Amino acid sequence: MRSALRRGLAALVSLLALLTVVSATPASASASASASHRSQTIPTDKGPVAGATAGGVDQFRGIPYAAPPVGARRWQPPAPASAWSGVRPATSYGSRCLQSATGTGNGPGMSEDCLYLNVYTPARRTNRPLPVMFWIHGGGFSSGSGDLYDGSRIAKANNVVVVTINYRLGVFGFLDMPGLSKQGAGNYGLLDQEAALRWTQRNIGAFGGDAGRVTIAGESAGGHSVCALLASPPARGLYAGAIIQSGGCPSLTGAQATARGADYAKAAGCSDRTTGVACLRAKPADQLLAAGSGFVGGILSGPLPVSGGPELPLAPSAAIRSGRYTHVPLLIGSTRDEVRQWALPFAKATKKQYERAVRLEFGKQADAVLAHYPYSSYGSQYAATYAISSLWDDSSVFYGLGGCQYQNLTAQFAARQPRTYFYEFDDPHPPTTGTTPAGFDSGAPHASELGYLWPMATTKLLTPEQQQLSSAMVRYWGAFVKHANPTTAGQEAWPSYRSGKYMSLLPGADSQALKVEVFAARHQCSFWNSTDYGWLTTNPDVLAKRAGVPAS
């Protein structure tokens, strides 16, 4: 009954949207509009927005889903956006959230006023509401933005609606200090994501979407976010499926987060316990950003969601182990060589320095690790980099990414959710960004699959066989959003993890479902699953320095 009522309301909202378009667009203007680029107006709960159509997709950019988190709203849970009069243009992206990262192209500028989202929906829609893919960007909770992910291709190819979002980053999104706010300290960015999901529940019907069929998806920190949302009681009911790409379930305890907050306050010149919060609130945003290099940290020392409060009563990893999370269909996977590029601080390491680093990390288990990953097995000038990245990949010591712990995480999900699907992105030579040393083979590193799903600079570099894989992945992801099952006609069938299979994604038509034992053998999981060890807590450059490796 509730489902039928929801569909009826969605259809009514869609009809009202159509009437708005007809009344807002003169007949003469409609007749002269280009079929590939026309205006489009849609009502939302705060007022109508006018987007544009390009390439068969209606695009609505820069829609505010919450009030600007500035002034008194800095370090507070997101507040409702204000209504506007008239039609709000939605043809330009909203500002990116403040971040110190560079190399993000010529997109919008940065601002504290950054809580915006973007909607992509097929221009030709049926009367039936469409499934929704809700994308959360990565970037270590310190960089990135929704505008980097043009949802047009996924929307058009699969006849689904795509939503991409911004959320507060770094110290603005994940600072935890006593007295900062009554609720949400340390998790403002996570609360932003939940606010964007609630906006989607209220409004996506007007854009042709089905609020009852929202799949949350993300890569890297976006994948971490998806796991956190699965474990977050306030997010329950806001989604019906999940996709985790190269993301795990890491978090900080409240004690860890407040200790990091105290360090940040000291770096910002606000170390006095009685006046520290007021001191930080009085500082301009650019000064807060400039003081945050230590807070942002490195690959393994940046911001994370904070457990122990209403948003995350349990650490996400503990919630998954215990089953106290939202059980929805899940697509989860990683790249074959997640951390290889991150091991480049060992590019000049000798055999002795490599072995010293392993001993520093694994202690009593070091001899066994070295027996499974001997320096002599990697005949190259980058032997140490390949060796240490291989053992890091297989052991999943980077927040559980890839390898054996990742497979174990998938098994934990699958034990309670039969519609769990596992993959490994195995393209041996995907195009990557950035510079690498001459002769270095990056393999399939972290984030290398993104250009196969979203239009990016690397997408233009795909070979014909890689383009074929790209098209297949877009359809697999779309099938999962639509049916909670990635299998789609004309492509290799994708069995569930419970069937004992995972999908190896390869260029051309070579993707294939393999036995999970193949994955375990590739990553030496019989060894790692019998070894007592934890996640790596030292960033690669620091560990390399401690091992005596000269800087590259």
UniProtKB/TrEMBL annotation:
<feature type="region of interest" description="Disordered">
    <location>
        <begin position="32"/>
        <end position="55"/>
    </location>
</feature>
<keyword id="KW-0378">Hydrolase</keyword>
<dbReference type="InterPro" id="IPR019819">
    <property type="entry name" value="Carboxylesterase_B_CS"/>
</dbReference>
<protein>
    <recommendedName>
        <fullName>Carboxylic ester hydrolase</fullName>
        <ecNumber>3.1.1.-</ecNumber>
    </recommendedName>
</protein>
<keyword id="KW-0732">Signal</keyword>
<dbReference type="InterPro" id="IPR029058">
    <property type="entry name" value="AB_hydrolase_fold"/>
</dbReference>
<dbReference type="InterPro" id="IPR002018">
    <property type="entry name" value="CarbesteraseB"/>
</dbReference>
<comment type="similarity">
    <text>Belongs to the type-B carboxylesterase/lipase family.</text>
</comment>
<feature type="domain" description="Carboxylesterase type B">
    <location>
        <begin position="39"/>
        <end position="528"/>
    </location>
</feature>
<dbReference type="InterPro" id="IPR050309">
    <property type="entry name" value="Type-B_Carboxylest/Lipase"/>
</dbReference>
<feature type="signal peptide">
    <location>
        <begin position="1"/>
        <end position="29"/>
    </location>
</feature>
<dbReference type="Pfam" id="PF00135">
    <property type="entry name" value="COesterase"/>
</dbReference>
<dbReference type="InterPro" id="IPR019826">
    <property type="entry name" value="Carboxylesterase_B_AS"/>
</dbReference>
